[in-house]
Amino acid sequence: LQISGYLNLLANTIDNFTHGLAVAASFLVSRKVGFLTTMAILLHEIPHEVGDFAILLRAGFDRWSAAKMQLSTALGGILGACFAICAQSPKGAGETVAWILPFTSGGFLYIALVNVVPDLLEEKNPWNSLQQVLLLCTGITVMVLLA
Fold it and tell me: Which residue windows are transmembrane per the record (predicted)?
């Protein structure tokens, strides 16, 4: 088995931990924010997990081992949610949410931009670059409208 598979599992566990933080903190704000955050993370996670599964297969894991390892990384999400709930201040959930949501949002933006911007800079076709920038702006607009 290649080390890249284990590194991917570690990164996926940390990613799931931040997802758990975000979901739990969002539900501390309100049900609506919690459900919106959960849906956004689910829409992100489905293709992400499929990609991670393919990375594990390429790293030498068999299908069953890769599936079990992917499932075990979900424990990171549970730990993140438990951490967010246990980190509540005696003064209320507001102080907890005041640092968890900006932390997780910043992390998600950083990861997205680190993955997207280098590809945009390497794109040779200006029409493809324009399409990607427009879709990125559309995504930001949708987030603003939902907020």
Answer: 69-87, 99-117, 129-146
Quick one: which of 74, 89, 119 has its CA closest to 25? Answer: 89
Report the C-alpha gap between 97 and 129 in whole angstroms. 36
The enclosing H or E element of 59 equals none
- Hunting for tokens 């549970």 — which residue is that? 78
CB of 55 within 8 A of CB of 40? no
Instruction: Give the rounded distance of the alpha carbon of 141 from its chain centre.
Output: 19
Q: Which domain holds residue 124?
A: 1-146
Tokens linked to 24: 């739990």
| Residues in CB range of 29: below 8 A, 6 or more apart | 93, 97, 101
Q: How many domains does the chain have?
A: 1
CB 25 within 8 A of CB 18: no
Q: Which pTM does this prediction carry?
A: 0.72
With contact defined as beta carbons under 8 Å apart, do 89 and 96 qualify? yes
Q: pLDDT by residue for the chain (147 residues), tens digit each?
A: 688 889 889 988 988 998 998 899 888 888 998 998 899 888 888 888 888 899 899 999 999 999 999 999 999 999 999 988 887 766 665 666 677 777 777 777 777 677 667 777 777 888 888 888 888 788 888 878 876
